[in-house]
């Protein structure tokens, strides 16, 4: 059987980036949360902040470790599977990715050591500083990687000569047309992801009556975040969509399932797009709504997929459905935010009930939304690696045979199944183990950073919290 | 006109040796795992590198990204040429990377699995890197700046030997690191391991030195031309080997590690001097492989400002975690 190296490499990249993406999107949000907790503890001396910070640092360590190793794989994929693309775009992507390493990765890695292992070795203020540096590093990293990714969608500031990109303006290339929207969208997605994970676990702990004081604080904070950020994300997403209509009209048409360029386009709620038929087999829509959303006129013109030739059309069904998945979850998040506000106003936020059972289930939501969003934007770019300029088949490694791509794909799948299966299990163990009540060196009287672990705080000699029995299924 | 390409060659060369020395010792600790006296020693060994491994490995990512930025041809020929080897390297790094977190969270029975993952992962990664060195000495089949060879061209008896050489070399970095960072039974054991590893390394070093001029005409000419300076490099390496032996006999704690780093630096410089100025042997030099001058310049501005800062805070973290690692300490 012959395998197509281009197709297998695309599947391989999609597989690896999907696994990788869920870790940064979580750790970016969580790093800022930990820095905030450390700051609150530093300022108020309240033990609850320290308990939360300690617990979430443990979760962060596992998630960050998995993010790092899958990220290393990513950085080599360009060269192994897409060497012609690497060669063509090296003048731009090389410096940008290098800047990511020197300005972000080193910062994260060095201060992560101090954050995780240095609590008893450095003064409290220095530990707080380390937490801030880790958080800053995650953002700088997102800045560069999204600059690189956005440029592949909306290339700017370059001259394409003899099959190689030459940078004519670094500002135009880095701050390319889709970058501001993509970066903001991902940053907010990270905060939402962090908020939903922390809120979900906190709600579950409240159900169990575990560390109530600290978890009330955590749940409350996260719900404020969700209340404001979920609607803000919808607005940012809308702006991003307008940008896509301007620069990647075919992708936008696929997101809408709109085959013919038309005025007064309906917003399709359900459809079965078919590339063979160059149309939808079935559709249910709200008349004129797509035009209203995209052009702010009832009879505004919305581009159609068949403006591009069949060979240059993206996989419409994937784009159409992943987009709806993302948007649907977005509305669900807004609803959760409002629900939380209603409970808060009724002073029922901390009373164990349905809300506390729903929140743990919602932990999956932001991750699904992020992966779905990535599928929308990345499949929507097909068949282009650099939009309109370098296609998949031009970018592939010439010496790569189908079987090599298959062998490595199966290999990565096997490795990831073991590693991420185990990682999920250990994360669950950390959560099930509960928070540690003993927080040394954090009594109100001031810092004693060098005090050994067994020295004890106000309740320092108390036994560690008993592990929770995980009867939540 | 500033020669950016030459500056970049120096920066990349610096990045690579930083990676080898720094990730070398933590990979080495993993390689030594099966020989450790007991489980408690393994805990101590892992804790001695836990705060640093992530930063150390970042130099590898810098090497990859830096090559793409400054010498894209090296990136786009070597990675396809080493495709399956790169997969093994990455799989090894994945397993050992997650083992740092997973091993301490595992139950007593499962802990052994993650010890194995740490050890085998470190070993495979080290072996794969050594094979890269061997394949580099052998050279790559290219046409029009594209790799045209087969999937297994990198896998030869010669490259396997360089692989084993680097594996033992990393183990030596690991054992001398442990001499410096531990005490008691772990340190005693590391003192015993060091001379054996050194002996193994030197024998492979010797075989490679005789074999290399046989597989590579260019290196033969370089070694036996008028460039006598080149012989100072292996002489320096031998001097370092002597220092290690003497320091171990006197039970010096810091010197064995420093001298092992010296051994690596001299060997590395020897390799560079033998192949200079070819970066994709046998066909392409530094200048053939370079990216556009404006890209090299743009990246250079940042790197020259940022790398000193990176070095400063990296040094600071090593200082924070200075001194001996003791049992039960160090994990968050």
What's a concise summary of this model?
Chain A is mainly alpha-helical and 473 residues long. Chain A has helices at residues 5-44, 47-81, 83-117, 124-153, 170-174, 179-208, 212-247, 249-256, 289-295, 316-345, 354-361, 364-379, 392-395, 402-433; strands at residues 158-161, 164-167, 262-263, 267-274, 279-286, 301-302, 384-386, 390-391.
Q: What do you see in this structure?
A:
The complex is a heterodimer of chains A (473) and B (332). Chain A has 473 residues and is mainly alpha-helical. Chain A has helices at 5-44, 47-81, 83-117, 124-153, 170-174, 179-208, 212-247, 249-256, 289-295, 316-345, 354-361, 364-379, 392-395, 402-433; strands spanning 158-161, 164-167, 262-263, 267-274, 279-286, 301-302, 384-386, 390-391. Chain A is built from 14 helices and eight strands. In chain A, helix 3 (83-117) runs antiparallel to helix 4. In chain A, 53% of the residues are buried. The model of chain A is unreliable at 442-467 and 469-473 (pLDDT under 50). With 332 residues, chain B is an all-alpha fold. Helices cover 77% and strands 3% of the residues of chain B. Chain B is built from 13 helices and four strands. In chain B, strands 1-2 form a two-stranded antiparallel sheet. In chain B, strands 3-4 form a two-stranded antiparallel sheet. The longest helix of chain B is centred in the middle third of the chain and has 32 residues, at 184-215. Classes of the chains: A mainly alpha (473), B mainly alpha (332). Chains A and B meet through helix 2, helix 3, strand 2 and helix 14 of A and helix 3, helix 4, helix 5, strand 2 and helix 13 of B. Chain B: This is Cytochrome D ubiquinol oxidase subunit II. Chain B: It comes from Spiribacter curvatus.
